[in-house]
Design brief:
This protein has 203 residues and is mostly helical. The chain folds into two domains: 54 residues, Arc Repressor Mutant, subunit A (Orthogonal Bundle), CATH 1.10.10.60; 108 residues, Tetracycline Repressor, domain 2 (Orthogonal Bundle). The protein is 69% helix and 0% strand. The longest helix is centred in the last third of the chain and has 27 residues. It is elongated and about 55 Å long. The two termini are 32 Å apart. GO terms for molecular function: DNA-binding transcription factor activity; transcription cis-regulatory region binding.
């Protein structure tokens, strides 16, 4: 995540009390928050529970985040656990295959898959968290945009093609395969998905 972008998001998070990315133990607090979300669900997630497991005083958390929604939002947007590595293979096709692999790992990894499912459940019907979910997606897309900028510069992609559409198609295919069909994801799957999406964009 770009640090300047992270600071801008943090400044705008509902309930964030100050600029910056949080106390020195922020990443530990974020990880505990997401772990407890996956274990207990949104309704049973508490600031007190996060503080106890993270080994910090709850006043430290309240000094930075006004309530659990603000804390959860910061964890979703800023946690290293949910960060995607932006591939740079030298070609758009290679980069998109790398992106698909990153998405698969996010949705199937032991540490991340439960968090993704629990976070989606928490967001549903809660406008404040829906805003934060949009920030999460916007942040990831801001990093992935470099993939498409490089492709345009190399002449592989028309500038008029909207990167978000390509990302949505790839992510939707992975989500359907992993979460809905619960089918295995192979390297061949990643290649086929990218080939189909690019075939539509480049034709």
């Amino acid at each position: 995540m770009d640090s300047a972008y992270a600071r801008r998001v943090d400044d705008r998070l509902p309930g964030s009390r100050r600029a910056g990315r949080g106390p020195r133990q922020a990443q530990k607090i974020y990880r505990v928050t997401l772990d407890l979300l996956a274990e207990c669900g949104y309704d049973d997630l508490t600031v007190e529970g996060v503080a106890a497991r993270a080994g910090v005083n709850k006043t430290t958390i309240y000094r930075w985040w006004s309530d659990k929604d603000a804390l959860l939002g910061a964890a979703l947007v800023q946690s290293d656990l949910l960060r995607l590595t932006v591939p740079d293979t030298g070609s758009l096709r290679g980069d998109l295959r790398g992106l698909v692999r990153e998405l698969v790992e996010l949705m199937t990894g032991e540490a991340t898959s439960r968090v993704v499912v629990a976070a989606l459940g928490a967001v549903a019907g809660r406008p404040r968290l829906e805003w934060l979910a949009r920030e999460f997606v916007a942040d990831r897309l801001s990093g992935e945009r470099a993939v498409f900028d490089r492709a345009v510069a190399r002449g592989e992609l028309r500038a008029a093609v909207e990167p978000a559409v390509i990302v949505d198609l790839l992510a939707g295919a992975v989500w359907s395969r992993v979460m809905l069909r619960q089918a295995p994801v192979s390297e061949e799957f990643a290649e086929q998905v990218v080939d189909v999406v690019l075939g539509g964009c480049l034709s």
